Every structure is written in structure tokens, then in C-alpha cells.
Model the fold of this input.
Amino acid sequence: MPEAKYSQEFFNNAFFQSRYLNTRLFPGDVDELSPGEAKSLKSELERALVSLNQKIEEERDSSDYDWLHRLSVKKEVVKTFLERIEAYKAPSPVPFEAKYHLSFFRELVAKKLGPLEADDLYEKARRLAQSQTKKEFNL
Done:
């Protein structure tokens, strides 16, 4: 059976229903995964590819060409996701560090000034940050 060719648009709109992550993923979502999620997805995709190859091999002499075609499309989608996983780069730990830094800083300020004063300062800082972001990005 000749291998079908699919457009890039097809693959950009394809999805993979991950049982491990309990979610539907599109190719662009791969870049947003945590390192642990990416590792789990890679494992699931590798298993899916083996399973699809086995099914195609077992049924290659079948007269149900539609079913074989659907399997081959699924196989191509899985291969596309595996390529995205191979190109995956874990997100920088800086946003996580900043997030933890802010929460620990807020906790220390609350101990020093009290929780109400800390909340007021936190909200004022948040509003100033939003204002500055709007100015810099012309929002």
C-alpha cells in the first residue's frame, strides 16, 4: 500500500488523545509540557507506534482499505508528535524560580508586617506591574 502524503496544515490540526496525561494534545501543546509530562507522552507515543505497526502488519492483507488507511493516518500523526517530542526543550526554570521567590518573599513580608499589609503591598505591586506591562507592550 503506497504511503499517503499529508499537508502541514493537516498535522498542525491533528491531535493525540493522551491517556497518560488525560488530555487531548495538539502539536503546538508539546512545547508547553513539563519535562515529566514530555517524558510520559514520549513513552505513550512510542507504545502507540509499536501497537499501530503490529495492527498494520497483522491486517495488511485485509480488504478493509478504509480501516488500514485510518491506521496509517494515526501512525503518521503519532510520528509527527514523536518528532515534536524529540525537538522539545524543557522550559526554563527561571519562571518557576520567580514564582517561588515571590511566594516566599510574600510569606516573609507577611511575617514582618502582617498579612493585611502584605496583601495590600502585593496588590499594589501587581497593579504597577500590569501598568508597566501595558506601557511596554502597547496594550
